[in-house]
Amino acid sequence: MLIVGLTGGIASGKTTVSTMFHEAGIPIIDADVISREVVEPGTTVLEKIKLTFGPQIIKNGVLDRQQLGDTVFGNEANLSQLNAIIQPAISNAIQDKLAFWRTQKAPIVILDVPLLVERGYHENDSVDQIIVVTVSEATQLARLKARNQLDDYAANNRIKSQLPLSEKVKVADYVIDNNGTLAATREQVAQVIAKLKEIAPEYAGK
Ligand code: ATP
């Protein structure tokens, strides 16, 4: 099975592009969805978070993300403790989903990981190929402001907290330029799918 990492920057169009892959019949594993699933009520991960950071981190049985954010934001020790709890659970869940798609004999799977480069997925064997969805800084700012109702300052802060898109593009096997219309992006997705289908047989059985 060919495992293709999909990444980009905030509001660069990852969700838009992954929906296009889904519509073309290619399975998507979404790391954002998984990161919410692993802390659902009753999970061992939620229990570990409670033991580590205190019971106030849970409200009505549910993880209080605001509290957790306040606890780890700007506190390196707390952040690395949280990552040590959460990241192995996310990796395991991803492996489970990959195993499922192998049983389904899917030739290609898209692994949508917003922080793929930040987490070093490009440096190990986590993915076989990488797609980066890119936009200009101006487009990124405009779309982020419009979608999240942010002013220039807040939107810029969010963009600056991530690795620049120009750095992510360097590790890409395929770059999808999402500055244009949705139709233009869909056309590029179709081209990438054609290339992936060409190489997928090399990964059959893996
Ligand atoms: P995040 O990581 O922040 O969740 P994302 O990378 O998944 O974002 P999307 O949610 O797909 O990005 O796109 C960001 C915003 O830009 C959305 O409001 C989306 O509708 C819009 N958008 C995406 N692509 C285009 C396009 N080609 N033309 C116009 N608007 C677009």
Automatic annotation (TrEMBL):
One of its GO terms (biological process) is coenzyme A biosynthetic process. Gene3D superfamilies: P-loop containing nucleotide triphosphate hydrolases. GO terms for molecular function: ATP binding; dephospho-CoA kinase activity. Keywords: ATP-binding, Coenzyme A biosynthesis, Cytoplasm, Kinase, Nucleotide-binding, Transferase. It catalyses: 3'-dephospho-CoA + ATP = ADP + CoA + H(+). NCBIfam families: dephospho-CoA kinase. This is Dephospho-CoA kinase. It comes from Leuconostoc fallax. The lineage of its organism: Bacteria, Bacillati, Bacillota, Bacilli, Lactobacillales.
